[in-house]
Design brief:
By secondary structure, this protein is of the alpha+beta class. It contains four helices and five strands; from the N terminus they run βααβββαβα. The N and C termini lie far apart (50 Å).
Amino acid sequence: MRVEVATTDDVDRVADLWVDLARDQRSYGSHLRAEANRVPVRETIARHASEDTLLVARDDDVVGFVTVGVETGSYAQDCTRGVVQNVYVVPERRDEGVGSALLAAAEERLGDLGADVVALDVLADNDAAWRFYRRAGYEPHRVEMEKSVENDNHSKE
């Protein structure tokens, strides 16, 4: 297995894997709809491939992927934050070090892009992901909270 920068030939396969990832993440409370986002996600993946910010793990086929980027915005910060997104490994290849190899390659790529620190999001209920990232040295930095606006005075109906 090797981790490398993806090519445009990988875009459709990675889009399929992203749909699998989004479908899986629904069980942890994600609001993203898997299949409904296939077209915009494919466009995003193609952009990442053209910018060399899509990395894939492959044997004969792509078995995992990660996208990265450097955070930009209008606020001055005391560091340059790299962002790891969408770490995914096909279920039959998990616990073989593929995810760790993808994460290490993502961190290296972000360093090459000028990042001082690396950030990522984890769904609150995804205990396996929390363990994985903690083993890799990640600690909580910001916590996002959410609440439904449905109550006795307000509903979606």
